[in-house]
Amino acid sequence: MLTIFLFWSLILLKLISALTIKGQLDVTPYNLSTFKISNTRFRLQQIGSLDSNKHPIKATAYIQDPDGSFEFNNIEVDERINKTTRFVIYPLSKDFNVKPNRVLVEFFMNENGTLETKGFRNYFGREYFPSKDIKFPEKLDPIDIKPMVRFSLVQKQPFRNYLQVRNPGVLKSGMIANILHSPWKMALVLIALTVIIFPIYVENFDPETVKLMKEQRRKQQREKYQIPN
Ligand SMILES: *[C@@H]1O[C@H](CO)[C@@H](O)[C@H](O)[C@H]1NC(C)=O
Ligand SMILES: *[C@@H]1O[C@H](CO)[C@@H](O)[C@H](O)[C@H]1NC(C)=O
Ligand SMILES: *[C@@H]1O[C@H](CO)[C@@H](O)[C@H](O)[C@H]1NC(C)=O
Asked: How far does the centroid of ligand 1 lie from the alpha carbon of residue 35, in Å?
């Protein structure tokens, strides 16, 4: 049992090599050093896995310098002849709209022992890359990923606007804002105010005016019901 395990371990050790995938985010015309670069990261996800006992590789890379460089280290690639290992790399950024939104990276071991590297980009609005299992896959759009996978900003739309005011004030958030923004609640409040405030308002008129108003009212009532004076 142990010998079989060792045998397979040796085979796997020999047939899998770990390599580094390098990438770069170009944010021209902006200067990356003025941004909090931890707000931008890149995810790598393996498609399929080298053998059924292993989970597909997942990794995250952060930008390392003002040039926008990042890298995924110790990425295992199948080195058996005619075998392909595939990864998808996608950007996650709070500050920028980055393109391509996904890049497919393929490693293929040629019969002559050279590892061929290919890259393809995805378009916006398309969620998944075509797979060999799909009958009519869409055509992949090849990109140059040597010496690194390059990402840049989507033109005309460089910034994301997720600005949140921390203390918006009572008129914009909270209970009062809730009432102000709802016509029904606003109507209820107005009725309540009228009921409470109107009598106070009337009481604060000077006595002569109140007397006059009452007089006027009585007169109107009498006229209405034709009561003689
Ligand atoms: C970006 O800004 C840093 C510091 O503010 C500066 O040293 C660097 O030269 C700038 N880079 C570019 C490309 O303007
Ligand atoms: C690799 O693929 C080529 C072309 O399909 C084939 O001729 C060759 O026998 C394959 N080699 C191995 C080791 O599977
Ligand atoms: C190995 O094979 C590939 C494809 O068949 C070819 O493009 C490449 O030039 C070859 N490399 C060497 C070193 O022979």
From this structure: 11
Pocket flag, ligand 2, residue 82 (CB < 6 Å): yes
Instruction: Give the pLDDT confidence of 32-55 residue by residue, as tens digits.
Output: 888 888 889 999 999 887 677 788
Determine if the pTM surpasses 0.70.
no
Reported as a single tens digit per residue, the pLDDT across 152-177 is 988 755 556 555 556 666 677 777 77
* Nearest residue (CA) to ligand 1, atom 6: 33
Q: Which ligand sits closest to the CA of 112?
A: 3
Distance in Å, CA 34 to ligand 1 centroid:
8
CA distance 48 to 88: 11
For residue 120, is pLDDT > 60?
Answer: yes
Residue 4 scores a pLDDT above 70: no
Residue 33 DSSP SS3: helix
Considering only CA atoms, which of 100, 91, 101, 87 is closest in space to residue 39? Answer: 91
Report the first-to-last Cα separation within the chain, whole angstroms: 121
Between the CA of 221 and the centroid of ligand 2 the distance, in Å, is 109
Q: Structure tokens of 217?
A: 């009212």
- Residue 89 Cα to ligand 1 midpoint, Å, equals 27
> Contact, 121 vs 91, CB < 8 A?
no
